[in-house]
Each structure stands twice: as C-alpha cells, then as structure tokens.
Specification:
Blueprint: E1 17-23, H1 25-33, H2 35-41, E2 45-51, H3 56-66, E3 73-77, H4 78-85, H5 94-99, H6 106-111, E4 113-114, E5 117-118, E6 121-124, E7 128-133, H7 134-139, H8 150-163, E8 171-172, H9 179-189, H10 205-219, E9 223-224, H11 231-235, E10 244-248, H12 251-258, E11 266-269, E12 287-290, H13 298-309, H14 312-322, H15 349-357, H16 369-384, H17 390-405, H18 414-419
C-alpha cells in the first residue's frame, strides 16, 4: 500500500486552531517531543499537551456526560475505547480510518470499532513474548530455545524451583489478579469472552484449556502468588526471585526503567504454545487517540491525529525515541526492527514482536468490558483457591456473568451445545 506522505495530509493553510491533548506518561512525552514536527507542518495550530494519567478516563467520562470540559484529543487504552464510543460523545472517524485501513492490522481496528463505525485511531500495539533473565537460565542450564510449549515452560520452572531450593520461581502468578494472564492465554488459544453479538461466550473448550494451564501454574508452585505492580514485583527485576515474565512488548520499557544497570542480563523468547497447537500470537494492551464530539476544533483535531498516527515517519519516531510499539504494520519493513537491542543481549527483539502482529486474532469486547474484567478477576481468584473443576466453574460463571451484565449466553457456549 502507498501511504500518504506529509504533503498528502490535510492542507495546513486551511487549518487553524488551538488544541488541548490529554495523554499519560510516555505517550505524552512522545507527543511533546514531536510537537515541532507537527508545528512545522501546521504552523497555525497551537497544541497544549496535558500530561496526566491520574483518573484520565474518569474525568473524561464526566466531561462527556456534562457536555463540557473534555480535551480536543485524548488517549485511551484499547479496552476502554468501546465504553466511551457507546456514550455517543466521540467523533466518528470512519472516513479517516478508511484511508488507512490497510496500514493497520484488523485486530487493532476491531478495538476501535463500535456498531460498525470507527471512533479511535490505533497508536501502539502490545504483542506478547517472554522476558527472561539469562544468568538464571545459564545457572540452571535451561536453553530458552527448548521451551516451545507451555508443558516445556512448566518443566523448566520446576527444574529452577527445585535446583534453587525454592528461592527462584518461574513467574509471578497472583491468584488475586489472574485475569491479565487469563486474557493473554485466551486470546492465544483463540477463545472469546463474548461472541460477535455480545453474548457471553466464556464457557468454551479454549477457556477450559486456559484454566487448566492456570491451575498447573498454581499447583506446581512455579508461580509466585504476589500481586503485580507492587514494590516486591518491581524489585524482582534486579534479583533472582523470578526468572521470567510472560508479558507484552511494552513491559520491556518497565524493565529498563527499573533495572537500568542490567543491560545484557535480559533476553526474550517467543511465548510458548499449547501442546498440539500452532497459535502463538496474542496481545495485552495497546492504545488509541480519540476526539470528543464537544471539541470545537474538529478539523484541527483530525489533522493532529492523522499526522501523529497515520504517518509512517511519526509512528516510527514514537517507537525509536519512546519505545511505543507502532500499531501501523506498514512500518514493520523498516530496518530499525532488525537492529540488535543492546539491553536485551543484542537480540533483534523488535522483529520478534513484529512478526506476531499479523497473526493476532480478533477479540470481541463490549462497552461493559471494565466491569467484565473486574468480575473475571474476582471469579478466577475464588476458583484458583478452590478445588473446583474448570468445567463446573465455567458453567456457573457464565450464568453469573450474563446475569450481572444483562446479556444472553452465546449459542456457542458448551452449556448450550450440550443441551441440544
């Protein structure tokens, strides 16, 4: 596909205005750093980047409800996009999206689309792999190349746990927040929580397979039952208490920020697959930019979003300087993806992640996704601390989830299929 060059973007002479753009931490830093590029192309558009992460979504929802106070452009996580689109208070960006549809993977557009219309433009993606500590693997004679399946992964974890006398575990696996690993694995396995019509579809063979794996990670003792994003979790980057972290590409930046002196100690290997399957690709995270309807600067806001995200050079610039993995798959042929990354032992890890993007399966979300995630978190926490079989848990859980959300159970549910 031939993407529009900067010269092909909306004519600067016709666009004027002053924009307020809300974003968090690294995203805001990148937007600020590249503001001169936008100003050069659009000299009559002023932009104020408001770096804020605290309660960004809550404040935005209040502003949309009140009809006043929203920014002209704001960042949202993929999993939040539909919740805000369902308010009817986001600008329809379908025409802009259509110009660039082939430049982004379908899985990204899926998260930006509500009732057939596009309300967000993808910024960064989050393909997954396993970050690991080379020194621990070398000490216990584990070759990451031999870890092809989750069975291999568990066996390696058991070996490390035994040889270290219980000091080193394979991963963090907190029963209180198991929903993040559940989602990663469910997408890898090709499962869904909702079907295309928004019906509850969690009771499936894929979900059973994922729960079986989560139970094994718990029962074998290779997972540390410690909450993530706590001081203990962050300090583990510098110690030998945890050997691997199955996580998304953005996690690499966290490691470097919290363990800046450990260059060369870390490596990355592909996410293991389920035995008998070939599917490896999955994702966890990603973000997009949206434009609230109440903005009086619609033309300038669209020009800004188009310039920052639908522009190959800018997507690459966000990645080069701030490690924001580009959603624009049209960037993946750039030589930058093949360069060795010193911090990760000179591995060309960018290419490893890029190679997975096209294989990521579409995932059905609903406007009540946040409530769904919290309910799944609670359900998994109870289940992992019980002796219930996956089949019994899923049969009961789908009923409770459907009732809580006011949704129907999918015809594809194993409970429905069994009753026919």
């Amino acid at each position: 596909m031939c993407l529009p060059s900067r010269a092909d973007l909306s004519p600067p002479a016709d666009i004027q205005g002053d924009l307020r753009v809300d974003a968090w931490n690294i995203a805001a830093e990148s937007l600020k750093a590249h503001l001169p590029d936008f100003n050069h192309a659009y000299p009559d558009v002023g932009v104020d980047i408001n770096m804020t992460g605290a309660l960004l979504q809550a404040r935005l929802m209040l502003s949309l409800s009140a009809g006043v106070g929203a920014p002209d452009v704001t960042i949202l996580q993929f999993h939040d996009a539909l919740r805000f689109a369902a308010t009817g208070q986001l600008a329809d960006l379908s025409d802009l999206a259509e110009r660039y549809r082939d430049a982004f993977p379908e899985s990204a557009w899926k998260d930006c689309t509500f009732e057939g219309r596009v309300y967000a433009i993808p910024w960064d993606l989050a393909p997954c792999a396993v970050f690991y500590k080379r020194d621990i693997f070398q000490k216990y004679k584990i070759d990451p190349a031999t870890i092809r399946t989750w069975d291999d992964y568990i066996a390696a974890g058991e070996k490390i746990l035994a040889a270290s006398n219980g000091k080193t575990r394979m991963l963090f696996h907190p029963t209180s927040t198991a929903e993040f690993l559940f989602e990663i694995l469910l997408r890898q396995a090709g499962g869904q929580i909702f079907d295309e019509a928004g019906n509850v579809a969690i009771n499936s063979s894929e979900s059973r397979r994922v729960l079986t794996l989560l139970r094994r990670l718990t029962d074998t003792g290779i997972g540390a039952n410690t909450p993530v994003w706590t001081p203990i979790f962050l300090s583990s980057f510098k110690t030998d208490t945890i050997s691997t972290y199955p996580m998304a590409v953005w996690f690499g930046r966290f490691i470097q920020d919290y363990a800046p002196d450990d260059a060369g100690r870390w490596g990355v290997f592909p996410l293991p697959i389920f035995a008998g399957d070939k599917a490896r690709a999955t994702t966890y995270g990603g973000s997009a930019l949206v434009i609230p309807k109440q903005s009086t600067q619609q033309v300038a806001a669209r020009a800004y979003v188009e310039f920052m995200l639908c522009n190959r050079a800018m997507q690459l610039a966000h990645y080069r300087r701030f490690d924001l993995f580009p959603a624009m798959s049209a960037t993946y042929n750039d030589p930058f993806f093949d360069e060795p990354v010193a911090y990760f032992g000179n591995q060309p890890i960018r290419r490893m992640f890029a190679n997975e993007v096209a294989k990521i399966k579409n995932f059905n979300r609903t406007p009540d996704w946040e409530e769904t995630r919290h309910y799944i978190r609670q359900g998994l926490s109870r289940w992992l601390n019980s002796n219930d079989a996956p089949e019994a848990f899923l049969a009961e859980f789908e009923e409770k989830l459907a009732a809580r959300l006011g949704r129907e159970i999918s015809p594809q549910s194993l409970s429905k299929v069994a009753s026919e």
